[in-house]
Amino acid sequence: MIELPALGWQSIVIFVVFALSLLIATYCTYAERVIAAFLQDRVGPDRAGPYGLLQPLADAVKMFTKEEFFPGGANKALFVFGPCLAMITALMSSAVIPFGNNMSFGNNAFFLQGIEVNIGMLWVFGVVSLGVYGVMIGGWASNNKFSLLGAIRAASQNISYELAMGMALIAVLMISGTLSLRDITLQQSVAGEWHFWNIVKQPLGFIIFLVCAFAETNRTPFDLPECETELVGGYHTEYSSMKLGLYLFSEYVNIFVVSAVMSVLYFGGFNFPFQYELRDWFVSSQGWELASAQNLITLLGTVGLFLKIFAFIFFFMWIRWTLPRFRYDQLMRLGWTILIPLAVFNILLTGGLILFGVI
Amino acid sequence: MSPLFLFLSFVALLSALGVVFAKNPVHSVLFLILTFFSLSGHYLLLNAQFLAAVNIIVYAGAIMVLFLFVIMFLNLNVDTEPHKPALAKVAAAVAGGSLLLILVAALKDVQPTGVAAGTAFNSQIGMVAQLGMKLYTDFLLPFELASVLFLVAMVGAVMLGKREAGERNF
């Protein structure tokens, strides 16, 4: 058993996770344009820096130097508070995601994870459910009918899809028997036996979770809260400057976090195939110490997790530039009359399979 | 008393007062959400992580979103605020005052006892595993009945939301 991690190491990990979330979100804005250009057979951003790599920086400069605009009759305090809240809630949920197994240097051992709590999954779920407040408060405080409509759409959409998402999670919980994301990850790979990731045991649950993830992050085809064709800009119609930037940015942070959660819950997290064999090979054939071999495997696992996350982020963007937007009543019907019954069925199915010892 | 406890209590009381005194109903709702957060902090101090998380998910994350949703629809503001007759105000003051009186009378002699002497404090008492064991052994029937009730409510909501045959799309 590993000692409780020292606060010094852990604060470094938390800082790195924070910086990485921001960095990845920054380059998501670039990736979105590049992927859009690729899918539409265009060139995409290529002016700022080599391959347009400095585009996010140019965007940031543009955002910061634009005029700060407050609409007449807006509730000033809440108008500023809305985007801040959206950003805070987006960044909070990455705290409990296990980005890697444990590292050890001499007597110092620590997890590559912000905080390890035994309610990790509930934490993510709780923070995600709070994310809608940023949109709602901003939309309401703008004193604009289109913003208000966007805010109300966001609220009802999030509430509806949270139900199906929660029930898809329950099926994962039934298999794992723990709420700790680290334990769920460790369970998906056991040394010395043929072990499958949760996606094999929960294909239906994963699809439900994936659809709900699109709805919770307000991504196309479920981006009804900011639907340009009907609502001008939706909840951020009245926003300008970096306040708008924070809203757009928090969407990318949310995509990063939800991709990480999906990788951890269904795709083995930091596990990769043949990791134990590789570790043993380093120890037996190369004469490494067990601890340093383990550290190397941990680092490789972290790289693997990030590859999984990037694959999901690409998937999010691929869908965005492929599928048209749903109509609002279709969105609600999909959530309530298709996904929720499917999620209940998935719970029953999982219970039956556990009862008969299949999984 | 730890400084954290004092801070959380301060925030809880202040935001609870804010709920009552805020002129704007949306501000009231936001203060109420802050109150729920400080209560969740108290649960954490009592080592009840699960209760803290569920309090945030259910109350702050779901019920208050619906509250805010409805209040945004109603568009309440100073101009449209209904003015209550004086009699209603007096009745409210009397009712609230008597509730305060009863609470003070009931709680004035309470002595905080803490953990009963002789029993070791179990630090795992509020954890998910402990709670699950308790719910599925001692309280199995009420737990299952409550879950059936929730399922029925959810099926009812889906049924109400389903479109009847021949109804217009929108």
From TrEMBL, chain B:
Keywords: Cell membrane, Membrane, NAD, Quinone, Transmembrane, Transmembrane helix. GO terms for cellular component: plasma membrane. It holds the Pfam family Oxidored_q3. Its EC number is 7.1.1.-. The chain crosses the membrane at residues 28-46, 53-74, 86-107, 139-160. GO terms for molecular function: NADH dehydrogenase (ubiquinone) activity; quinone binding. It is found in: Cell membrane. It catalyses: a quinone + NADH + 5 H(+)(in) = a quinol + NAD(+) + 4 H(+)(out). It is a multi-pass membrane protein. Belongs to the complex I subunit 6 family. NDH-1 shuttles electrons from NADH, via FMN and iron-sulfur (Fe-S) centers, to quinones in the respiratory chain. Couples the redox reaction to proton translocation (for every two electrons transferred, four hydrogen ions are translocated across the cytoplasmic membrane), and thus conserves the redox energy in a proton gradient. This is NADH-quinone oxidoreductase subunit J. It comes from Hymenobacter lutimineralis.
